[in-house]
Design a protein that fits this description.
The complex is a heterodimer.
Chain A lengths: L1 H6 L5 E4 L10 H12 L1 E8 L6 H8 L17 E11 L2 E11 L12 H19 L15 E6 L8 H10 L5 E5 L7 H17 L12 H11 L4 E2 L6 E4 L2 E8 L2 E4 L8 H11 L1 H23 L14 H103 L1
Helix pairs in contact in A: 8-9
Chain B lengths: L6 E5 L19 H13 L1 E8 L6 H8 L13 H5 L6 E9 L2 E9 L14 H19 L14 E7 L7 H10 L5 E6 L6 H17 L14 H13 L2 E2 L6 E4 L2 E8 L2 E4 L8 H11 L1 H23 L4 H12 L3 H7 L3
Parallel strand pairs in B: 2-4, 2-5, 5-6, 6-7
Antiparallel strand pairs in B: 3-4, 8-9, 9-10
Helix pairs in contact in B: 8-9
The chains are: A alpha/beta, B alpha/beta.
GO molecular function, one term (chain B): GTP binding
Main location (chain B): cytoplasm
Protein name (chain B): Septin-type G domain-containing protein
Chain lengths: 422, 344
């Protein structure tokens, strides 16, 4: 940082000697006190096959019984389960989130197994980025859910890494600090373990997998970190059960042939893991996550969205200009979509319209047809009526004629009678 | 470090009291405090302090006394041309100082010419401009796609405003400056060259100043609204009841009762700068450096800078959430949604 520049003679920044005690040596304490008030966040992701001992190791590391569910081996897809706990040690408050994979390595086809893990990690970065880009933001109080450390559990086969291990770690090494551990290390003998560790590290190197290196730039921890880097991957054994050894109760696993003590460095590397993960490098893990992995995610995301720092001809471009350009682009795209939709709408309407017209025409022709039929029927009926009327009228005429005739004949007869009487 | 400590579990998902609370044993979480301490010691600190006041009020001397070194060169009496010049020109000087392994890059921003002209209207403008420029610089860096690992911080963390020891009230220039700058930077007002006031005169002056500040709605550091918890409130209330600190500055040492003390020698006695019975320099130093330095930086970063940022983003109509959401929409095919709505 700026100190390097001073040492190489940065103009305008001169070192000055103090004539007495000023008191800013209390600054680190002021900072630490503020952090104590706020509390710390630490998020660990455990990846490993079902039953490999992830939950047990977490319980052992943090000396507690987290809520554990025994998972089945029949999960159709890899899922992640995150649980958050508030822990306290003396005056330090820690908000710990433990994320476990569920069903990892159980499927027949493991090609997509890494994807849910990558998605989870990205989602936490995205969440932070969204908060960082908000206008009114609250980073100060934000609950940081980004994964600070990823413990990758290697099966204690004694031979080599599985291809699933290599593929998964390769996908994750630019997104998270990976610390590989050999699980259930009490099933491997010491000599086999040594060979196994060498095999694993060489496989990681030859496949270009970047695991987390314990930092060497701070003299206070460089020595212990260098030693520890040489012990990777840590061979761990977890247990919350206590067994009496000598006159003490220790965390251990009891077998008929002996007792494997978790905190005995001759038996396994548990103490080394705890030392590295928590006591020495927790802060560095958090810092690497923020300054390296998150920045990479953010850079890629912004570039994806079309933001750049320099425009054509390498002139620096202000974010505002890029934002305006992006927004114009977006509005144009939106307009295009809108037009497409409108066109589609219009098209649909036309189609519907012609459908309706067709239906109408059909209806109309049927109507005409019916009308004609009706007219024909009517004409036929009228004809019948006319004939009937004719019939009726001719009948009436005939009747009238008959009646007349009858009446006439009656009158004629009457007259004859009358004439006779005279 | 290796002694066993108790570990309590408060499950966020309401664990029953049986599980978890009974397990004791060493974990090592508190080691994170040391990790943090060594990280900050290695990285070093930056602190930017601005001094504002008429010439002759002892600004340079005070800064030198505060930091026990020749941070500012005392300006000699400005010549005729300088006196007639119409602007306040800000002057920045940086030093690296170290104490017990803690390295600090101290930047002092001086404001010669403030309040010195015949017509002092708008003399706060260049200062306002400077403060906002630093916020702007930081904002631009923060918005870069490719960001520096550590953004250089030139923002003004603290502005010491020098009130002449008139004994009366705040003057119009004081009110104008404090009103405007008080909104964007943490101001610590002090009574300069307070050796011309008796203790009673000092108390009355302070009381009147506090009344004037309240009457004009001016909030100086530490601002009441930013107290984070009751403990902090109590601490800060005590400070608020004693500001503005009446200070005397000097770089000369004298012998008093066989001890070497920083003081001003007069015919009627030696004013011991670090003696709280004589003046409140020690209170100021403790506030600024020994107890609230980190807080000054935090208030600048979390409050003043954020306020500036909100205003700037609103001005430029830059709402990233609008873009972010829309990109997601475009990527995730809202086409389907639209199609279903066009079924007639």
């Amino acid at each position: 940082g700026f100190l390097k520049r001073v040492q190489t003679g940065d103009k305008g920044v001169r070192p000055l000697s103090l004539a007495g005690h000023v008191g800013f040596d209390s600054l680190p304490d002021q900072l630490v006190n503020k952090s104590i008030c706020q509390g710390f966040c630490f998020n660990i992701l455990c990846i490993g096959e079902t039953g490999i001992g992830k939950s047990t190791l977490m319980d052992t590391l943090f000396n507690t019984n987290f809520e554990n569910f025994e998972s089945s081996h029949f999960e159709p897809q890899v899922k992640l389960r995150a649980q958050t706990y508030d822990l306290q040690e003396s005056n330090v408050r820690l908000r710990l989130t433990v994320v476990n994979t569920v069903g990892f390595g159980d499927q027949m086809n493991k090609q997509e197994s890494y994807q849910p893990v990558v998605d989870y990690i990205d989602r936490q970065f995205e969440s932070y980025l969204q908060e960082e880009l908000k206008i009114k933001r609250s980073l100060h109080n934000y609950h940081d859910s980004r994964v600070h450390a990823c413990l990758y559990f290697i099966s204690p086969s004694g031979h080599s890494l599985k291809s699933l291990d290599l593929v998964t770690m390769k996908k994750l090494d630019s997104k998270v600090n990976i610390i590989p551990v050999i699980a259930k290390a009490d099933t491997i003998s010491k000599s086999e373990l040594h060979k196994f560790k060498i095999k694993i590290m060489s496989e990681l190197v030859s496949n270009g997998v970047q695991i987390y290196q314990f930092p060497l730039d701070d003299e206070t921890v460089a020595k212990v970190n260098t030693t520890m880097n040489g012990h990777l991957p840590f061979a761990v054994v977890g247990s919350t059960e206590e067994v009496s050894v000598g006159n003490k109760m220790v965390k251990a696993r009891q077998y008929p042939w002996g007792v494997v003590q978790v905190e005995n460095e001759n038996h396994c590397d548990f103490v080394k893991l705890r030392e590295m993960l928590i006591c020495v490098n927790m802060e560095d893990l958090r810092e690497q996550t923020h300054t390296r992995h998150y920045e990479l995610y953010r850079r890629c995301k912004l570039e994806e969205m079309g933001f750049k720092d320099t425009g054509p001809e390498s002139k620096p471009v202000s974010l505002q200009q890029t934002y305006e350009a992006k927004r114009q682009e977006f509005l144009v795209e939106l307009q295009k979509r809108e037009d497409e939709m409108r066109q589609m709408f219009v098209q649909r309407v036309k189609e519907k319209e012609s459908e309706l017209k067709e239906a109408e025409r059909e209806l109309q022709s049927r109507f005409e047809q019916l009308k004609r039929l009706h007219a024909d029927e009517k004409a036929a009926l009228e004809e019948k009526k006319r004939l009937l009327d004719e019939d009726q009228s001719s009948f009436s005429k005939r009747r009238a004629a008959a009646q007349l005739l009858q009446a006439q004949s009656l009158t004629a007869n009457g007259k004859k009678d009358k004439d006779r009487k005279k | 470090h290796n002694s066993p400590t108790f570990l309590f579990v408060y499950g966020l998902n309401k664990l029953s009291s049986e599980s978890g609370t009974d397990l004791f044993g060493y974990v090592g979480i508190e080691a994170v405090l040391d990790q943090m301490r060594s990280k900050t010691m290695k990285a070093g600190f930056e602190f930017n302090i601005m001094v504002v006041g008429q010439s002759g009020l002892g600004k340079s001397t005070l800064v030198n006394t505060l930091f026990k070194s020749k941070v500012s060169r005392k300006s000699c009496t400005p010549n005729y041309e300088e006196k007639i010049s119409k602007t306040v020109k800000l002057h920045t000087v940086s030093h690296v100082i170290e104490e017990k392994g803690v390295k600090m890059k101290l930047t002092v921003i001086d404001t010669p010419g403030f309040g010195d002209q015949i017509n002092n209207e708008n003399c706060w403008e260049p200062i306002l401009k400077y403060v906002n420029e630093q916020y702007e610089k930081y904002l631009r860096e923060e918005l870069h796609v490719n960001r520096k690992r550590r953004i250089p911080d030139s923002r003004v963390h603290c502005c010491i405003y020098f009130l002449p020891a008139t004994g009366h009230r705040l003057r119009p220039i004081d009110v104008e400056f404090l009103k405007r700058l008080g909104k964007i930077v943490s101001i610590v007002p002090i009574i300069a060259k307070a050796d011309t006031l008796t203790i009673e005169e000092r108390q009355e002056f302070k009381e009147r100043i506090r009344q004037d500040l309240a009457a004009n709605g001016i909030h100086v550091y530490p601002q009441k609204e930013y107290d984070e918890d009751p403990e902090e409130r109590i601490l800060n209330d005590r400070i608020r009841e004693s500001i503005p600190f009446a200070v005397v500055g000097t770089d000369k040492e004298h012998q008093v009762n066989g001890n070497k003390v920083l003081g001003r020698k007069t015919k009627w006695g030696i004013i011991e700068v670090e003696n709280v019975a004589h003046c409140e320099f020690a209170n100021l130093r403790d506030l600024l450096i020994r107890s609230h330095l980190q807080d000054l930086k935090d208030v600048t970063h979390n409050i003043h800078y954020e306020t500036y940022r909100v205003r700037r983003l609103n001005e430029s109509n830059m709402d990233f959430s609008e873009l972010g959401l829309s990109t997601w929409l475009l990527e995730n095919g809202t086409a389907d949604k639209w199609e279903s709505e066009s079924h007639l």
